[in-house]
Structures are given as C-alpha cells and as structure tokens.
Design goal:
It is a single chain. The protein is built from 16 helices and 11 strands. With about 375 residues, it is an alpha/beta fold. The chain folds into 3 domains: about 45 residues, no CATH class; about 290 residues, Rossmann fold (3-Layer(aba) Sandwich); about 35 residues, no CATH class. Helix 5 crosses helix 6 and helix 10 runs parallel beside helix 12. The longest helix has 20 residues. The N and C termini lie far apart (about 90 Å).
C-alpha cells in the first residue's frame, strides 16, 4: 500500500477542480473504471494489461528498467509457455521473477479455461499461483494485477528469489516453473546473477518431475564463460533438458536481446542417450511495424500450431526446423549448433550457384582484381 500513498497525499488531485466539477482523482478513477476496468472484467483474456501500461509509460520516461535487467514478456510468449508445458488445472505454478505477473495471469487463464468446477477455479486463484518479485514497484503492479483478476495476491512475495532456500520452496509443491530472469546482470564476481544460474535455482525449487520453461538470452545456453559451463554441467547432473527453441530476434523489440526458450524436467538426471529437441522458431509470424512495435501477422497462429505439433511429436519436421540429438554440457544448446543442411541440392540450386560465381568473377576482373583468377600471370606470359 505504501506505493499508492502518493494518491492520498497529493493535495492537488484531491481538491475539487472548477472545470471538472469534481476532484481530478475522481475524474481519473471514473475514466479508468468505465473505459478499462469494465473491459478487463468483461473479456476473458490472458493479456497482462498493467504490464502493457507499464511498458508504454516507461517508453516516455527516459528509462525502462533495462539497467536492472527488466524485460517484460510479451503475451504471445506467456501463452506459448502454458502450451509448451501442457499446463493443467491441478498444476501449481511458480514464477520466481514475476515482474508484472504476466506468466501467472496466462497460467491462471489457461488453467481456469479447462474446468467448469467453481470450487476448483477458486482453488486455482487462491492456492495454485506463486510468485516472487524483488523490485517493490514491480511487486505492486503484480499484486494489483492479481487483485484485478480475482485474488491470488496472497501467494506473491516481495523477496529476492536467489536468497530463498530451494528446499523450502519445494514445500509449495509447485509442478510448473516459468521465468524470465533479469538479463545481463551476471559477472565473474557475481556468478549467481547469470541467467542460467537463475534457471538452476528454479529447477531446484520444483518437485521431482516438475516442468520448467525459461526465456533467456541465447548466450546463456552457449556457455560463454567458465562459470556458465559449470552451471550447465551441474544442471544435467540433477535435471533433464527437454529442448531449446530459438525465438524471433525481435521478440523483445527495442531491447537488443536474442532470446530462446529452454524447457526442462526437474529432479530427474539427464540420461546420456536422451534425445533433446532444438527448434528454429525465428520465423514465428510476428513482424515489427513502424511506430507500433511487434505485431501479429496472419501466419502466426499456423506457425505456432506447427511448433506445438513438432514439440509434442504429432508430426515430423525437416531438420532445418527441428533437430533431435543427444547433448553434452559443453555444447551450445541451440538449433544452429546441431543443424547441418542434409537436403540434396537441386539442379536449380546448382545453376544459381554457378551464376553467382560468374557474376562475382566478372565483377572482380572489371575492378582490376583479375589476379585473383590468374589473369595477371597470363599477361606476363604475353
């Protein structure tokens, strides 16, 4: 409540304005109620409205939390998480870096969508959604978000997840973990802040057999530092990597992060011959529109359905989309690392390649670089 005291303590907005005929705070509250709140309650949606407001407001403020590693997750990604882990009404969901509660809102929406039992719906709202958020102002947005959605707020805590004992968190009996950890905060002096370190801490906090999905920079799964490689190795000793999905480079438009989704099974050591899926989902049907940002195109739903069909083995896929392979801890856990082009070139491919080469050769010769093709030697002979 301390975050909202500015509303009560600001005299200007609590005095009647002669033009409005009421206090500015009453005018504003009526506008919010009629134009936003009633719409949120009327439409059954997993949209994180307050998260969108926050992101929009911050874009005008000269800073958007990126110095703290805060990158809010788009709705189409939070919904995709729920589908990739096949969330069910009886799951218990933990998001230890919940931000504005986008993952928890999507989870609640998907869980409630699968049941008509009012008692089960009430149980989902109050007892099956758990979150941690270290930033007090983000925690305020998250709790407000959950209040708007119908409680669930009692299971959100304003704590530092990394200081929580994983064994204690396991007592919550969470079966699903979702996370978008702070980015680019780790260093040789503070190894616990690497994104892959957050991932390990989450896996240690779930029950055995729990499903976890995290969205992290691609560099986190390549193991660019010794510390990250050691964490990857330790993860495989205690947990199972199911696969990694390379995402659209514009998923976090304007931030400059190349993200991927890594999916794990907690508490079960990774088998040596376990086949993991590595998927290239850069073409996801979302495009950047000028002055708007990332927008959904008509192909997005079909592309997502194809991804889910491949992930759940409903259809086979070409290796340029999905590679299934065993892994090592020091591998780069990305599709680009395991993929090789196994398609036989066509006659048209051959012709195009020859044409490209001849164009290149003529261009070099006309620019005085014929020596690259031995033409200077011929001149000397003449």
């Amino acid at each position: 409540m301390s975050q909202f005291l500015v509303i009560k303590d600001t005299t200007k907005i609590n005095e009647i304005d002669s033009t409005l005929g009421k206090t500015p705070i009453k005018h504003y509250t009526e506008f919010i109620n009629n134009n936003i709140f009633k719409t949120i309650n009327r439409v059954s949606s997993s949209e994180d409205y307050l998260g969108r407001f926050y992101g929009e407001f911050m874009s005008y403020s000269g800073g958007d939390g990126q110095t703290l590693g805060i990158v809010l997750t788009p709705r189409h990604i939070t919904d995709l998480f729920c589908e990739l882990v096949d969330i069910k009404p009886d799951d218990r969901v933990l998001d230890p870096c919940c931000g504005t509660a986008g993952f928890l809102i999507s989870s609640m929406h998907h869980m409630i969508d699968q049941t008509d039992d009012e008692r089960e719906i009430e149980d989902i709202r109050k007892n099956r959604l758990f979150g941690n958020e270290i930033q007090s102002y983000m925690f305020t947005i998250a709790t407000t978000n959950m209040i708007i959605r119908g409680d669930g707020k009692s299971n959100l805590e304003n704590h530092d997840f990394l200081k929580e004992n994983p064994n204690k968190l396991q007592l919550k009996q969470c079966t699903v973990g979702m996370m978008n950890p702070p980015y680019s905060q780790g260093s040789s002096k503070n190894k616990d802040l690497y994104e892959i370190a957050f991932t390990e801490h989450l896996l240690n906090s779930l029950v055995e057999g729990g499903r976890a999905a995290v969205i992290i920079p691609q560099s986190s799964v390549t193991g660019k530092t010794k510390a990250e490689r050691e964490i990857k190795e330790n993860i495989l000793k205690h947990h199972t990597l199911e696969g990694v999905i390379t995402l659209n480079k514009d998923t976090f438009y304007g931030v400059g992060v190349n993200p991927c989704i890594a999916i794990f099974t907690a508490g079960i050591p990774h088998r040596e011959k376990k086949l993991c899926k590595f998927i290239n989902f850069e073409e996801d049907g979302y495009k950047v529109s000028k002055h708007i940002g990332l927008v959904e195109t008509t192909s997005a739903k079909d592309k997502k359905q194809h991804l889910l069909d491949v992930w759940f083995d409903r259809i086979e896929s070409q290796t340029k989309f999905c590679v299934e392979t065993t892994i090592e801890a020091d591998d780069e856990w990305l599709h680009s690392f395991y993929y090789f082009n196994d398609e036989i070139p066509s006659e048209e491919d051959f012709r195009n390649t020859i044409a490209d080469y001849l164009t290149f050769e003529v261009n070099m010769i006309t620019h005085g670089r014929g020596y690259l093709f031995g033409l200077e030697d011929e001149k000397k002979k003449i």
